[in-house]
Amino acid sequence: MTILVKIAYDGTAYHGFQIQDDVTTVFGVFQDALLKILGHSTDIKGCSRTDSGVHAACYYLSFETEKQLNIPRLPLALNANLPQDIRVLEARQVNDGFHARYDCKGKEYTYYILNSHIDSPFSNKYYYRVPSVLDADKMNQAAQYYVGTHDFRSFMAAKSKITDCTRTVYSAKVERKGDMITFTVSADGYLYNMVRIMVGTLVNVGKGIWQPDYVADIIKAENRDMAGPTAPPQGLFLTDVYYDL
């Protein structure tokens, strides 16, 4: 049978999701917990690679097993073997051949910016603090230039080896609630560091360094040097993943 599992995790202690040698990753920790349940190793497919320090409120992974499982109780069994910063939220059986990454239709990310001179002692692992006054309305105007199908290589990490940089952004929105500014973006896929570079660019707009329509010029330039800095990872959350189920 093929199982699809939804998890959430605090990425602070992890070097991203994907397994790597000699560092702790979400994949590696989840793989160890699943081995204890199944009694055998299996190929786990994650819906996305996430950078070191990035969080996920909604992340999906799939795996296959011949063992008969009590699927409704699988989240409880896995959580008993996982650290507190990784939680299994639900599990379901899906069609054989389902792949958490290749069957994904799109993903939503939300980035949190605390626009304040003072840090929070309780949640400073979950936002990027910008003390300079930011104009969230102009940031939202700028974000609309991301929407549509574009070559986003200006918003890709310089050392990335990806050649096809065309992605479709379904929606992009900047909102302010008190001192907290959020940027939420939904797309069919993302380049390496794409959302974090989008955020760094929007922060420059919010500071008044650039006007909102400059984002259109950045996209057309297809040049990483034109865009803003890469925002730090701790403010970024994967918040939704889309499937046809």
Q: What's the gyration radius in Å?
A: 19 Å
Please, what is the CATH homologous superfamily of the largest domain? Pseudouridine synthase I, catalytic domain, C-terminal subdomain
Whole-number tally of structural domains = 2
The class by helix and strand makeup works out as alpha+beta
Number of helices: 5
- How confident is the prediction overall: mean pLDDT? 95
CATH topology of the largest domain: Alpha-Beta Plaits
H/E element order: EHEEHEEEHEEEHHE
What can be said about the biggest beta sheet? 10 strands, mixed
CATH class of the largest domain: Alpha Beta
Q: Given the C-alpha coordinates, what overall shape results?
A: globular
**Uncertain residue ranges:** none
What percentage of amino acids are in beta strands? 25-35%
Cα distance, first to last residue?
Answer: 16 Å
Q: Write the CATH architecture name of the largest domain.
A: 2-Layer Sandwich
Helix content percent band: 10-25%
Q: Got a strand count?
A: 10
Q: Could you please describe the fold and organization of this structure?
A:
This protein is α+β, with helices and mostly antiparallel strands and 245 residues long. It folds into 2 domains: 93 residues, Alpha-Beta Plaits, CATH 3.30.70.580; 137 residues, Pseudouridine synthase I, catalytic domain, C-terminal subdomain (Alpha-Beta Plaits, 2-Layer Sandwich). The chain is 20% helix and 29% strand. The chain is built from 5 helices and 10 strands; from the N terminus they run E-H-E-E-H-E-E-E-H-E-E-E-H-H-E. Strands 1, 2, 3, 4, 5, 6, 7, 8, 9 and 10 form a 10-stranded mixed β-sheet that branches. A hairpin with an 8-residue loop joins strand 2 and strand 3. Helix 3 crosses helix 4. The longest helix is centred in the first third of the chain and has 13 residues. The protein is globular. The model has no long low-confidence stretch (mean pLDDT 95).
